[in-house]
Amino acid sequence: MESPSTARKRIMALIVASLMMMEQIDGTALTTALPAMAGDFHVDIPQTSIALTVYMLGLAALIPASGHVAERFGSRTTLRCAVVLFLSGSLLCGWAPNLVVLALARLVQGAGGAMMVPVGRLVILQNVPKSELLAAMAWVMLPATIGPMAGPVLGGVLTSWLSWRWIFYINIPLGLLAIVLTGRFIPQICAVRPPPFDLRGNILSATGLAGLIFGMEMLTHPGFPPVISFGLLLLAPLCAGAYLRHARGVTHPVLDLSLLRVATFRISVLAGGLTRIATAGIIFLLPSLLQTRFGASAAQSGLITFIAPVGALVMRFAAPRIYRGRGFRTVMCVASLVLPAVCLLLAGFRPGMPMGWLLGLLAMNGMGQTLLYTGYNTIAYADMPKPRMGTATSLYSTCQQVMLTMGICLAAGMLAACHSVLPVKWQGQDYSLTFMACALVASMALPILLRLSADAGATVSGHEHIENTGKKRY
Predict the structure, then answer these.
(1) Per-residue DSSP letters for 96-157?
(2) Are 369 and 278 in contact (CB under 8 A)?
(3) What pLDDT score was predicted for residue 185?
(4) Residue 47, Cα to own-chain centre: how many angstroms?
(5) 75-78 — which CB contacts under 8 Å span 24+ positions?
(6) Which residues of the chain have pLDDT under 70?
């Protein structure tokens, strides 16, 4: 197949980024609307976290199959069908009369997202040489940055002026445009002889992930007996053990754990997972903190959190040059210190403190996380053989969504535990303690990142070329 032109590669990257933007607008806007949803459905705010976790359940359960589906039916066909499914779920979410229906509709959305984003990333990996991967990822992440930036503001405005249901309705025009552009610019890449689908492995992995995610979620809901939660949590290791035994006897397992032997991929999965847990916790905590403790409206909290993606947008342009100059190991280790520091400072934020202090803190967090995630999402594939990109994307995306789900469950669970355990006079410390827990998790990424070699990802960043010749490569 003829290599796409530079202009076409950028258009493909922007289409993929737009799909990510649509998904992220949906998710980040929803976090701002959780207090309003809780009021409409007459439930506590921690209970509304099921609208976030059940979506990620759909992602985690079906992402493992995304690479196989794309290889069998073609990347363009898979993407277009995935967007249609995502839009169908959006319509159902907007109509939902109660939290149960909303959760089921979010599961439909998750099924679409499970194919939409991983296959889009696979399109880039299949069509862009590794020497251009860092720059391509910068293009991919550019519109995707707009999602977190616009999501809280848009969600706050829609929730305050119209209804939180419009958060889902705005996906319709974006999705229809994506369907048209995908048909025009995304190539139809199919495997000549796709391997047989590992149905048993997918059932085992999906069941185990469902047990883990719902078990953690149910622990945050006081209405469910603890025995059900612990039973679901017990299901996860049982299915994991069964899957490991199954995968050893299968030539093409749905989740190929042998990919973790690639050092850069393994480190990105492990360290990135810890960072994502803490990041998801902040995304869940901050809007509700501003609304419940600082008296901000949904629109006001959205405008305040707007500053973090602004910092991210600024860093997006500088990230490739920074990695080219310093290399992945140095930059990622330094950037990994930002999130724990931000979490600890947020734990000490109190009503009456200058709002400019919070805005500066969020801007710093946006810049640090953008720099770090650019590294995670690029170095994961730096040493991956091209024939294994599809399975690598499926495994990486599955791990990514599981960790994001765990982050939301950790934050919601800590809040619920603090409400139940802390004395009345200490009830105001619930958010502080939860932010401190997020800081602890985020800090655990640094020892893992220190295992990167000094020249890790040099063929992608160009850092090795600078060290050897003293000349910059553009």
Answers:
(1) -SSHHHHHHHHHHHHHHHHHHHHHHHHHHHHHS-GGGHHHHHHHHHHHHHHHHHHHHHHHHH
(2) no
(3) 79
(4) 21
(5) 75/119, 75/122, 75/123, 75/126, 75/186, 75/187, 75/188, 75/189, 75/190, 76/182, 76/183, 76/186, 76/187, 76/188, 76/189, 77/188, 78/115, 78/119
(6) 1-7, 27-28, 46, 49, 60, 130-132, 135-136, 138-150, 152, 190-192, 194, 217-224, 297-303, 305-309, 422-428, 461-474
Closest to 118 (Cα-Cα) out of 426, 399, 421:
399
Among residues 309, 411, 327, the alpha carbon closest in space to that of 365 is found at: 309
As a whole number of angstroms, the distance between CA 317 and CA 137 comes to 11
Residue 408 CA to residue 390 CA, distance in Å, equals: 28
Contact in structure between 323 and 134 (CB atoms under 8 Å): yes
3-state helix, strand and coil shares in percent for the chain, rounded to the nearest 5: 80, 0, 20
Q: Look up residue 405 and give its amino acid.
A: T
Cα 290 from Cα 398, distance rounded (Å): 31
